[in-house]
Each structure stands twice: as C-alpha cells, then as structure tokens.
Amino acid sequence: MRYHTNMKKNSNRHSQPLTLLGGISAETFLKEYWHKKPLLIRGAMPAFEGFLTPNELAGLAREEDVQSRLISTVKKEWKLEQGPFSGKRFSKLPKRDWTLLVQSVNHHLQEANDVLQQFNFIPYARLDDLMVSYAPDGGGVGPHFDSYDVFLLQGCGQRLWRISEQKDLSLVEGAPLRILQNFNTEQEWILSAGDMLYLPPHVAHWGIAVGDCMTYSIGFRAPSAQELAVEFLNYLQEHRTLSGIYADPNLVTQKHPSEIGAGMINQVSSILDGLKWNDADVADFLGLYLTEPKSHIVFDAPKNMTLQAFGKRMKRDGVKLSFKSQLLYVSNTYYLNGEIVVLDADSAGLISRLADCRLLSAEDLSLAPKISEYFVVLMHDWYLASCIIFSE
Ligand code: SIN
Ligand code: CO
Questions:
Q1: How far is the CA of 291 from the centre of ligand 2 (A)?
Q2: Which residue's alpha carbon is at the smallest distance from atom 3 of ligand 1?
Q3: What is the pTM of this model?
Q4: For residue 8, pLDDT beyond 60
Q5: If one looks up domain 307-390 in CATH, what number appears?
Q6: In whole angstroms, what is the distance from residue 165 CA to residue 145 CA?
Q7: What is the pLDDT of residues 165-220, one digit of tens each?
Q8: Domain residue limits, the chain
Q9: Nearest one of 281, 286, 291 to 240, comparing CA atoms
Q10: pLDDT tens, position by position, 218-231
Q11: Options 2.60.290.11, 3.90.1150.10, 3.30.710.10, 2.60.120.650; CATH of 12-220
Q12: Is the CB–ligand 1 distance for residue 326 below 6 Å?
C-alpha cells in the first residue's frame, strides 16, 4: 500500500514549483532550460554553505583513490597538476590565483549524495558526479566550455561567473587545459552561498573567486557517439557468436593474386549481415555499461559478517547503496555495477525502491509484504561485495 502511495506522490512531484529551480517545476525546467539556455537561481539552496572546509577538501585530495587537480596561473601561463597532493605541496601555494578541484566527492560523503539526490528529477543514468573546488581570490579554471550540462552551486564565499553563448570556441593551443582563445563576456553575476547557475553544454563560462570560495558542480554524463559505438561493439563481441566459416567453392582465377576480389568482399559482407541487434540488446548494453564502475574506482572492503547477523542488522538499521555503486533498471531487469541482477519475484518491489531511493530503511523493510530468504542472501552477497552498506 505504502509503495503505491509513494509512487502516486512521485508522479506529480515534477510539476510542483521548486526552490532549487527558482520557483519553476522540474517539468518546466526540462522543457525550457535543460540543454537549451542558462538559468541563474538566487537562493536555490537557501541555507547551503557547503559541507566541506578547504582543509577537508585538501584532505580528500591527498587520497590515492581520489581524482584531484591543482590549476594555477604563473605569469599568465596556465599550469595543471594532477593529485594526489602532499601536505608539502599545499604549504607552497601562493596567496591567490589557484584552485583545487576534487572530482566525485559523492563517492566519499553522504552529504554529497544528499545534494545529488535533490537533482533526481534527471535520471541517474545521466548524472555523473559532484565536483568540489576551492579557490582563493582570483582563482579559477579559466574561460572554457564543457560538453555536458552542469549546475554550479556556490558554497562558502563568492564567485564571479561570466558567461557567453559565443560561437567561437577555439582553444589556446598548447595549454595544459582547455582555455578559450577569445572569451567575450555577455552576462556576469556574483554568486553567494546557496546561489546556483545552470549551464547547458557548450556555453562558455569563467568563474573567478572573489575572496576565498568553494563551488559545488553537479555534472552530467554525456558519452560521445564514438564512445557509445566502441562500447557497444565490445558488448556485441562478448554477446554474439556467428556460426559458419568463410568458404569459396565458386572461386575463379584472377589476374592479380594480390587483389582482394569482389567475390570475397561480397561474401564477408553477407557474413557480417548476420550481426543483428535490436532495442533489447541496446537496453541490456546500456544497463551494463552505465552501471560499470569507472576503472579507477576502488570499493572499500566491508567487515566480514555471517548471513544470520547480517539479516538481523539489515532489518534493524536498513541498508543503502554504497556511494560508488550504481543500480539501474530497464523494465524488469536490474543492473548493479556492471552486472545483471538475478531476482526472485518477492524481491522486485524492494529492489526497485533501493534503486530509486538508493536506500531501504528499516521502516521500508518492516512494511514490505514479504522478505524472502533469497533477498536476504542477495543483500548479504552485495554487502560482502561492498555494493551496499548499513544505513545507520
Ligand atoms: C570550478 O569550480 O571552478 C569549475 C567549475 C567549472 O567551470 O566547470
Ligand atoms: Co566548466
């Protein structure tokens, strides 16, 4: 019953005005702004000051499995360094004109996941990560454009954002990062804590710290057509076997033995015509590809636990997807971290809720019509593989 009520609530929540979007609904935002034009939202998250101090961000940038960058300008030349960074590196930084950027903070902190959750009117399959930057006065990554949509949410301090919908997107040659050769400011605003700027792909922008500031970028995933094709061809390689073998019973003599003849080309063409796929294959490919963890991701090892102890604790505390896990579905098929999930009929409702909310609270579990033995074993397996963690 409760599941039904929640679903009804969810179906019209997208037409409600949201403070996050400056008083328009998610539906209107998608129709009028998403992928189309910039939107400045004053007070998008009114009480937001950020959830990391500059020192905590620097702490993350010291970790081996965290992707971080330091960008600075030295005598007007752009300089890029990749992390991890030692404490010594930070102590040598000048007073101004540099920035530290830490990628995928949502892989490490619940607060980052809470921020991302507010953007769940956009499918998880499109969401990439939450990046956090810190900059002292004058710092920034320079004038550039991105190929994906981004929400730039201001944490502590202020940042001057300049934007331009210019056609000229030529880049400075030889620079270690993508810097626009000619940036012509068309609009500019100073953003304070809780303000947010949405930018569609390819809108040129330049954020300059006004005093110390921190910016939280909610970035989206947009694979190139080439990447999709390469990945799909890899998928086909693993999921297709063509039978038969090249044969040429009607071979005739040819003038040049080095020529690849039309007969051979025709026959190989018709063998390759046997390579067919449909929407169900594309759906299966997407489920596997979109949930596959990026290659640098390392899952933290969980504490060992017996099935019985796990079952008890799960019912008491609830479980949530671990921060690095991705659970998506297409009709009745679920995909977790690059693998298909085999489900029993009783567990589908629970898994669907876990996928949407990334959480199964103790209350959700207590209200479930049935928790099968199969489900407990599955969750225990996922716990041991670090795909889920206890919620409390
Ligand atoms: C930043 O936080 O300084 C960079 C965000 C961006 O321009 O994409
Ligand atoms: Co950008």
A1: 25
A2: 140
A3: 0.93
A4: no
A5: 3.40.366.30
A6: 10
A7: 999 999 999 999 999 999 999 999 999 999 999 999 999 999 999 999 999 999 99
A8: 12-220, 307-390
A9: 281
A10: 999 999 999 999 99
A11: 2.60.120.650
A12: no
